[in-house]
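Q: May I have one protein plus its fold?
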Amino acid sequence: MKLLLKLIIFTAIVMPLFSAATKAESTKAQIEALKQQIDAIQRQNQQQIEALKQQIKLMENAREADKEAVAEIKEEQKDAWYNKFKAQYKKGFTFQAGDMFKMRFRIMSQFRMTVDDPEVGNTSTDFSVGRLRFKWDGFAFKPWFLYMIQVEAKSGLELRDMFFTAAYDNNIMPRVGQWKVPFGRQQLNSSSALQFVFRSIVDDEFGLGRDRGVALMGGLGPKYNFSYSAGVFNGDGTNGKSRDSNLLYAGRIQFGVGGEGDKFKANSSYATGSAYSLVPNFAKAPTFVVGAAVAALPGLDCGRKSPESNACDRYSELGLTQANLTTITGDVSFKMPIFNIQGSYYGRWINPDEQGIFQGTAYDQGFNIQSGVFLLPKTVEVAGRFDYIDFDTSGGVLPPGVGATADSTWTVSPALNYYISHDHRWKIQAQYIFARAAFTQGAQDEDDNTVSLQLQAFF
């Protein structure tokens, strides 16, 4: 009995201790197992982290490569024309692609009302489009390779100007194409920048207009004070063709002092310094310019060609079809902000190649003087002009038996100008012309009265 009691007591004491020891061993094993799982998870996560880091590094390397590729593309394309293309309006619609190409497009339009009251004939009132012209200018391939194209809408489209100028060096520039012959000041001044509705009758009689040919021109001095142009032309006027080898030779020189601006206007009809352009008014500072020109067309045969002047009409009056034509001109201009004045002289020799009915050389001459005063600065201007032409009717010049011919012609022209844009682009002009033509052999003089009103928009 005692033994049984001892066993019971031992079991009650020892078994819990054994059970606790067994449980402790089991917990330890679980802890170890959990630690092993943690180590496995950490190794797995570390591998994933390393893989992600490697992926990030590859992506960063690819990104840097893309940046370099983009930088290389940008470097290659930075000089491409389409990255430098720009369009703007600045006295014309201008499109430019870097130093490769530039084009300015302009439209010059004039609407005119004219009332003409001649001494002989009916009085007429006429509404007309004085001029409608389209102009393109700029450079191509290189900034110094300049071009100019101008067409006029009449019954169709007529080419007025088309020339190329190599302005690599402003001191000496070759030009080829069709443009105004380097001769008279008033003709060389653009029709958009005239101080009067009409040019002088002296310019109509002696001027040479446009022609096709080649020339050399340039400017010298700190402000291109001295400019020149000399060339050889067909001698048959705008869009004319030479049908013989009797060509027109012409050259002009010009010198100016004062004025503002030192830019060389290489792409104009007569290339000169901006301070000495041929516009008659709108000077920013006192400016004085003097010019001279000479032109010759040996053996001009009016049956084959006709320069843009009244020379062939004069040939017909003198009973000639062929003769040597030589023309000279000199001009002077002074302008300041509120006042301007200019004058020109022309002389013309018509000398026949062969002796016949016409025995002598005819020397015709003419001059004009014009002036303007601004009543409102850059806005309202009053102007006036006097023109005179003296035709040579001395003995031995006119053929025997010829009837009454023109002896002299003169005009007086007051004008009023309203410059809406404070320059010549947008303006309203009014001009009155009194003209008198005197004839030989006591024929009665003829008078003519003309009033013109014109609106111009040049944009």
